[in-house]
Design brief:
The protein contains one helix and eight strands, in the order αββββββββ. The protein has about 110 residues and is of the alpha+beta class. The strands form two sheets. Strands 1-8-3-6 form a four-stranded antiparallel beta sheet. The radius of gyration is 19 Å and the shape is elongated.
Length: about 110
């Protein structure tokens, strides 16, 4: 028969593991969002993860998402935003930040962590 201390330690280990799994799932799904982006926007100025891109208004040209921490630097393109309304699950890590440049007439929303 196990002691109460062993049972409590096991319970604590299970709770810690579940917390870690929950946090990893949140990071993949995105913990923050920016809605209705219609012009060049610095979404996040630090390393993170682009979770989901939602095109709410299609526009006439494709937009882009860059791995950058300033709107002045648009190198390091990581995603081309399509010209069709819809949801794209991206789940892509960025090293410096997230800059969204919608295409002409596009309106997009993004979730990130």
């Amino acid at each position: 028969m196990r002691s109460i201390s062993d049972i409590l330690t096991s319970t604590q280990n299970i709770a810690t593991a579940l917390s870690g799994i929950s946090q990893a799932l949140l990071n993949i799904s995105g913990t923050r969002n920016v809605l209705d982006i219609s012009s060049t926007t610095l979404v996040f100025p630090r390393p993170g993860r682009i979770a989901t891109v939602v095109v709410t208004t299609a526009g006439t040209t494709a937009g882009s998402i860059y791995d950058s921490n300033t709107t002045a630097i648009t190198t390091g393109k990581v995603f081309v935003i399509p010209t069709t309304v819809g949801i794209t699950v991206l789940n892509f890590p960025v090293a410096t930040g997230i800059v969204v440049v919608p295409g002409t007439g596009q309106v997009v929303s993004i979730s990130y962590s």
